[in-house]
Give the backbone structure.
Amino acid sequence: MSTENPDPAEAIAHALSRLRGRRMPGGGPHGHGHGGPHGERGEHVHGHGHRPGFGMPPWAGGPAAPGGRLGGPAWIRMLDALATASEPLSVSALGEAIGVDQPRASRLVQQGVQRGLVQREADPDDARRTRIALTEDGRRIARGMRGERRQALSKALESFTDDEARELARLLGKLADNWG
């Protein structure tokens, strides 16, 4: 495990977020792409695009999202990627980080701008490009997501020894590093 992230729960959360955006070649085990009635991973979705049986966490509601909901998994990955990035990301880099193509990333960014969660800013190295950063509302929501995820991971790791938790973090990090 790297010395950058000595806390196993945080390292596991980071590895899982890196893996969450990755797609299997060919659109997944069932051959479904993203979008449509089968969501991003081929799972069947109902209503507003969330999987049945999965409640929306408290940070997902509020005026920032139409209907009081933030959106689907790509939204969560986008906010998480921007929150953990060391600097604002280009739309292409954001798409790569969350596992969507550039047109889908552009749509997510546009929706994020309309909801006041992300902002575009000029790239200091190339005036023709823009970079994407979280607004204060976006940072607040990302903090809520990360805190809730951290709390759930800490609870799940209670039955692990310290060595087991560190080994799980190391293995998940290795998987994320080597996932195509």
In short: The longest helix spans residues 136-156. Confidence is low (pLDDT under 50) at residues 25-69.
